Amino acid sequence: MYVPVNFAVSDDEAWRVVTDAGAGMLVITASEGLASVFVPVLVSEDRRSLSAHVAKANPWWKSASDGSDVLALFVAASAYVSPRNYPSRFENPNTVPTWNYAAAEVRGTLTLHTDLQWKHDQVRSLTHHFEQGSEEEWLVDDLDARYRDGQLQAIVGIEITVTSIEAKAKLSQNRQEIDRLNVRANFEQGTLVQRGVAARMNPPD
């Protein structure tokens, strides 16, 4: 990932991109070329691993093996920025469109899990993570045990041991303050994706 100094973020912010995204694209090198799968992920408390699962019918996991390198890609905010957002264009009309976003990439090595208990624990933890804040949390263990185990038999667990994380938050930091604040103000009144970008565009100190 190319990260200019203006757009670099701390490790804590990089992990926030991952958790805010909630799901990401896992990319591996398969015999036929690159292979990807989009899955929700859970970050371990120590940030040393990611866990997920895929359908057993999905050929992605069959192209991988324990120890395979994995590139996990996450986008937490993303929106087009028109030059119309820049008040400075009235003094300097030579402005061009761009794209604002917060993205992260995690590199690591893969371990596949077929053990029923591991998959049960992963699904329970994953759903608890995403159900938090609900008035009535949906629980895996409320399912009929035979049905639940049948569903678990139909998935394969994924664990990624993290070797590195890098992220980039391109949020108009390279523009004049008046432009950046105006982009943020306009996005706050815009579409859902624009509001997501605006939430990350805190005014400069």
Write up this protein.
- The protein has 205 residues and is an alpha+beta fold.
- It has a single domain (5-52, 59-114, 159-198), classed as Pnp Oxidase, Chain A.
- Helix content is 27%, strand content 34%.
- It has helices at 11-21, 116-131, 145-153, 177-188, 192-198, and strands at residues 23-30, 33-40, 42-43, 49-55, 69-81, 98-113, 155-170.
- A 7-stranded antiparallel sheet has the order 2-1-5-6-7-4-3.
- α4 (177-188) crosses α5 (192-198).
- The protein starts with 10 loop residues before the first helix and ends in a 7-residue tail after the last helix.
- The mean pLDDT is 95.
Q: List how many beta strands DSSP finds.
A: 7
- Class of secondary structure makeup: alpha+beta
Mind telling me the CATH class? Mainly Beta
Task: Tell me, rounded to a whole number, the average pLDDT.
Answer: 95
With helices defined by DSSP (H or I, 4 residues minimum), what is the helix count? 5
Number of domains: 1
Strand residue percentage: 25-35%
Rg estimate, integer Å: 20 Å
Q: Looking at CATH, which topology would you report? A: Pnp Oxidase, Chain A
Report the CATH architecture.
Answer: Roll
Give the termini separation: 27 Å
Poorly predicted tracts of residues: none
Shape: elongated
Biggest sheet, strands in spatial order?
2-1-5-6-7-4-3
Percent helix, as a range, is 25-40%
* Major sheet summary line: 7 strands, antiparallel
